[in-house]
Amino acid sequence: MKTKLRKFFGYFKNSRVILLVFLLCAAAPVLILGFFFVHSAAGQMSEEHQSLTEQTAQRVRSILFDLTTSVYTISDSALSGSECMYLFASDMSSGTNQLYYQDISASLANLAENNASISSAHIYTDNPAIPDNTYITYDSGHYRNEEWYRKLTNNSWSEWLLLSNSNPINQDKNQLSLIRRIPIVSPAYTAYLVIRLDSNNMKNRIGEDSHRIYITLEDGTIVYSSGTEAKGEILSLPEDYSGENEYIGRTKPDGVPVLSVLRTLLPYRSDSKFIIEACDLSAFSGIAQITDNYLVIIAIALATIIAVILFFSKKLARQELINKQQEMEFKMLSAQINPHFLYNTLETIRMQALMSQNKDVAQSIKLLGKSMHYVLENTGTHMTTLEKELDHVKTYLMIQQIRFGDRINFAFEIDPEIHPETYPILPLLLQPIVENAVVHGLEDNTKQGFLKIEAASDDSFLHLSVRDSGRGMTEEELAAVRNRIDNAGTEPDVPHSSIALYNIRQRILLCYGIKSSMTVDSSPGMGTCVTLTLPHPSKTRKKQKENLWNRT
To answer: In a 10 Å sphere around its CB, with 0-12 CB exposed, 13-18 middle and 19+ buried, how is residue 377 labelled?
Structure first.
């Protein structure tokens, strides 16, 4: 394992570019985007869980408000009129009071029988003149033994409490109940109406939900719970929950952290307060799961990138060895071919042509030797002067004139502010462009063709243009040429001319930077113009030195 790691980092040591690409273009974006998506996904899921939990809490609050309001309104029907006000303050001696007694008892029976939400309705009084029946009870101890009375707040006229079930047949041990004090005309006696709600009806109205629902009184006593039988227990409320505002956050109702939403409800015409808590049991586990999934994906992506970099590092190392071998072979071959031998041979042929009075052949050989000398002289060098480059172009065009005669004519137009003899420029930039203009613009031209090589300057750039008077190109042909120039390095079967222009563009980009450019403009019958735009040496000398030093 250690040997593999040493080899792996050895590849990076030999190729700093690969390391830079890995860090900046692979690992860093994966980590940044990965953690961004993790955070974004977790935040989005948290918002969705929170929104659903808030909706559940609001729905339960609305149901509870409707239920308590309807029960209170229904209880008014049993206490309406003046029957209760006078009955529980009287001695039952009159026939009218007896009729009141019967009407009130019938109303209480009707409440329990005809309202599904009500389990029972009962009136308690400390007036000894009131006889007991199924719905009315006299309490001689002034309710001291009654559970509801012990839980009542002093001077409360209407309150909601959790009371134990007084009916042994009903399996519900605890019931949410409304206790109302009945106003009567005599201060000597009191009377209370106690209405117990049906727990099954309440459960059906709230319905099934994926959330855990708790409804408590102000002191935390649970009056309703879904999923667990916790009525009568005390629910632990968050310390920072005041009971007045809405709360959204983490709670532990069963000892396990859950996302909870707490809302308060003040029942209709009551001194009580309800607290509704909706708990999303799967929120944090779901967010943790999606986070873990994203982290696994990020780890797999990074492992894949490392594997790919390792694979290509080995390939590059092998290719580097092959390139060095080819370079050595080229140097060996170059050493075997002495340039002076070529010059001497061409000079011998030229002298023979002069002796034979063949001046055209002699001139051709002279120009060819001059052209070869320039190419060999600048092989392996990085800069020449604009004057030498233009002179090489002139030599090339003179050779073409010998071949094509008057079909090829040319002219140079140099900006007076430019000093070609000292202006530095990459070698062999213009000749491939001129050759392309001759081959594709003028070679098939039966009439006199014309080439113009221009060098112009402004504050920041040198502009080198090669214009021909050839047939030009249509918009479609021009677009195809531009596309081939852009993709010549990656597409197979690309014409040599496009590859030459592609190489020139790549060379100026590497040397002069992104401010440099090469443009091709043409129109049918108007010829073609290729323009190189190069930053002035004073603005790019540092960039050139850095690029050239890196290439060496």
So the answer is: middle
